[in-house]
Amino acid sequence: MAFQKTILITGGAGFIGSHLVRLLVKKYPKYHIVNLDKLTYAGNLENLKDIEDSLNYTFVKGDVTDEKHVDQLFTAFRFDGVVHLAAESHVDRSIANPMSFIETNIVGTVVLLNAARHHWKETAGKRFYHISTDEVYGSLGETGYFTEETPYDPRSPYSASKASSDHLVRAYYHTYGLPAVVSNCSNNYGPYQFPEKLLPLVINNIRHNKPLPVYGDGLYTRDWLWVEDHAAAIDLIYHQGQAGRTYNIGGNNEWKNIDLVQQLCDIMDQLLGRPAGTSRNLITFVKDRPGHDRRYAIDASRIKRELGWEPAIQADEGLRRTAQWYLENTEWLERVTSGAYQKYYEEQYGGE
Ligand code: NAD
Ligand code: TYD
Fold this sequence. Notes:
By secondary structure, the protein is α/β, with parallel strands linked by helices. Helix content is 43%, strand content 17%.
């Protein structure tokens, strides 16, 4: 089949990537979507079972740091665009082992930038879209928001590696004219998130009557966005965002960790038919994360004003849908938690 466009999605077997791949494969039957993923502990092809046989979808197992392989893929597929999500994504792991974050998040991004630069002699119609995080902006006090002009101030090895890759992407735009765009998004939640991140971890531990570890005083604040809303924003920015521009994406949905965990406990008690308050009893305050950022909050007015994007799913519905999905997909949960992650978690928090 002659495709209209061929787009490389990196990290498409991960949490956000799988939602994006699903959206693009279904919405654009004339696009060829090529998913390059190393399938680390965080990547699961099971996340894409429903679309894996689609005629406009190809999976390639590979590492974004592998220059030769990436170059071969650019030659073979003649990509029109790249949406780069592949990354080591968990802050706690970056504290335990920063080097893999440097390799994948920084070196991997440069490998992709170089490939795009060398293969795209003509840049009309081309796009290099780098997916990043609000964590690059550092930590806020009780008030204020991150805008696209907020100076970078990353504080964890994860956010420092993402900040570095963001700078490199912008440098390639300015230096080589690579048609690049960057978006910085707040915390995503929803189906297929690996249960080391707060929400699926809490849901999974409630299922097993295990302690729910809340770091420090629990008053750390995050802005939460339904993952499909992020995928929709990425689709929009890919097609309509301006090269050289940055877009902040947020849910306008701030929660203190303890309030979010309590809310989820109440939803889980209802869904599991347990007496109210059962799950809250599992909440356990544990040692704080080193260098823990106090508050993230996004000013997403640019993407609303310029591209007309707003989150569609509000917190009540999103949290309920999330809890419901994990309860309906316990096999997925069991499988992804049976390996390396379980060992790591037990070492850190003495889980059962
Ligand atoms: P994830 O950890 O769920 O998925 C990452 C994917 O990348 C996995 O499929 C993994 O196998 C793959 N991968 C890792 N190293 C690779 C390598 N060297 N080569 C090829 N593939 C590799 O992450 P996520 O939560 O879906 O995040 C995706 C992107 O979005 C990341 O760049 C992250 O920084 C960014 N982001 C995430 C959030 C969030 O809340 N999860 C918020 C803002 C931005
Ligand atoms: P996380 O899901 O790791 O995302 P990020 O650190 O990228 O924001 O954590 C969200 C918040 O929840 C963060 O403030 C750390 C906190 N947290 C806990 O309190 N307990 C936990 O077990 C985890 C994983 C996170």
